[in-house]
Each structure stands twice: as C-alpha cells, then as structure tokens.
Write a structure and sequence with these properties.
With 289 residues, the chain is of the alpha/beta class. The chain is elongated, with a radius of gyration of 24 Å. It is built from 13 helices and 7 strands. Strands 1-5-3-4-2 form a 5-stranded mixed sheet, sandwiched between helices. A two-stranded antiparallel ribbon has the order 6-7. It starts with 11 loop residues before the first helix and ends in a 9-residue tail after the last strand.
C-alpha cells in the first residue's frame, strides 16, 4: 500500500545529511536565526502551552554549527510553549556542521506541522538561495520596493502570494509591467497601493488586453483616487459577484473606457482565473454571456 505520509527522516532529502544524532537539548542553549524563522504567534504558543504534552510535542529539529552553538531549525512555537509550561529541555534531532543557508533549505522541507504564511516562507526561500525568490527580490528592488519580512502597513510589500503568482506567468516580465504602471500612477509602491487586488487586477488587464494603450491606462488611473477605484470595484462586485481582484479589473476597464467611442472601448474578459499554478484565461468569452 502506498504511504500517504512519510516522516521527514524517511524522506530522501534528509538522508543526504550524514551527520545527525538524536539527543535531549537544553532550551536555553537554543538560538533563533531571524533571517529564515517565522515570527512567533502568541495565541499559538499559548494554545500549545495550555495543553502541554511532551510526548505529543515530538522532536524539534536543531542545527549545531561548526562553532558548537545550537540553532533551532523547526519547532520554534513548541520551544516557546515548552518554556512557558516550565520545561527546561526537549528531545531533538541535531544536524551537524550546517551553514545558515543549509539550515534555511532544510527548514523549507520541514513545513509539515504548521502551514507557514507566505511572508515567512519567502524569507526562508531567500535565505536558502532560491532563484525565483531572489529574482523577485531583485525585480522589486529595481522598482524601489521589497517584500516585507514582517507585516508592515507603510513600507514595502505584503502581498507575497499575488506577486509570486504574477511573476510565474512569464518569469517576471508581466510583474515588471504591473510595477511600472503602479509607480507611474502613484509615485511610490506601498502596501496600500500594491494590494493583492490591484496587482492581480492590473496584471489581468495587461494580459487580457495586449492592444491597450498603456499611457492612456496610466493617465486615466491618475484621475482616480485609490478610494474611488476601490469603490468602483466594490460596486461591480455587488452586481457581478466574483472575486474582488476581478472587479478591480472591471473598474480599471471602466476607467480606461471613459470618453472613448464605442468602437474603441475594451470589453470585459474575465472568464479566466488565478490559480496556484498561475493565471488561466479564456479570453474569448465575455463575463455577461
């Protein structure tokens, strides 16, 4: 019978780490590398601590670097909960002589207990030297912005999943166009401007309407405040239903069409959808058919 689940130690990825051992470690000796670790969620720590069970907690994963110091790779919430519950030590699998990059790469393959948020996973991918993550980082830097390593309301970008979705369409060309447009319209790319809905809405506009005049798009969007565009999108959503990003797209088309003759207006093309594998579109269909 095919196994539906295999433990990390059974996975071939882990068998290539030759130097490893199992032992009990003192929690006070553990260090946290914030370059690839998640931010602690207090409610999660409290939840684990309230029902603390050492046996149920299992083993944590630790790296002992060449200088002899211990670095926690997987189990940060369990360690914090154990300390809160008064525990001093926990059983661990210890990998020896790993560099920080190798730890981050190992951590990416240990995401089997608690699903990571996109921001946290992106941070770990960067540390591990993932080429796609590094390409996205470089592209964003060219546009004067970056993925936030922690959620921020004022600077950087928080919409990692949407950025990755658009990037994967053509290795960044479409994402570059979207960022160019947002920067021309608003001057600076911030979390309020580059939302998931605006990024996907503009990206879909560009894919669905390659014949559109980008300069006109920029000009017409400049005439609207962000609040006006959001209001238009929600009005469309109230009538047409569907996801909010698709209705941002509709609002963008409405803005583009303003004062154009009927023969030059763009028709909605929203039969496609974003999926975890990318954008799928069927451009021949109109939404109201």
């Amino acid at each position: 019978m095919e196994k539906l689940y295999s433990s990390p130690l059974q996975n071939s990825h882990f068998r290539r780490f030759k130097k490893m051992r199992a032992e009990v470690v003192e929690l006070k000796k553990l260090n946290i590398d914030k370059d690839y670790q998640r931010d602690l969620r207090a409610h999660r720590v409290n939840e684990i601590a309230e029902g603390w069970d050492t046996a149920a907690a299992g083993t944590i994963i630790v790296s002992q670097r060449s200088n002899g110091k211990f670095w926690l790779v997987d189990g940060q919430h369990r360690v914090a909960a154990a300390q809160l519950a008064g525990e001093k030590e926990l059983p661990a699998i210890i990998y020896e002589d790993l560099a920080p990059k190798a730890e981050a790469n190992l951590r990416l393959h240990l995401n089997h207990r608690l699903q990571e948020r996109p921001l946290e996973r992106f941070k770990a991918r960067l540390k591990a030297g993932d080429e796609t993550a590094m390409d996205i980082r470089d592209l964003l830097e060219k546009h004067g912005t970056a993925i936030n390593t922690t959620y921020d309301y004022d600077e950087g970008l928080n919409t990692v999943a949407s950025i990755e979705t658009v990037y994967m369409q053509d290795d960044g060309a479409l994402l570059g166009q979207v960022l160019d447009i947002l920067k021309k319209v608003y001057g600076k790319i911030t979390p309020e401007i580059a939302t998931s809905n605006s990024i996907k809405g503009v990206a879909w506009f560009l894919r669905a309407h390659p014949e559109a005049d980008v300069d006109r798009l920029v000009e017409m969007l400049r005439r609207l405040s962000r609040a006006q565009l959001a209001s238009m999108a929600r009005t469309h959503m109230g009538v047409m239903r569907g996801s909010l990003w698709a209705n941002y797209y509709r609002a963008i088309v409405e803005a583009y069409n303003f004062n154009l003759s009927p023969t030059k207006r763009l028709a909605w093309k929203v039969r496609g959808q974003y999926s975890k594998h990318g954008m799928e579109d069927s451009r021949a269909k109109h939404d109201d058919e």
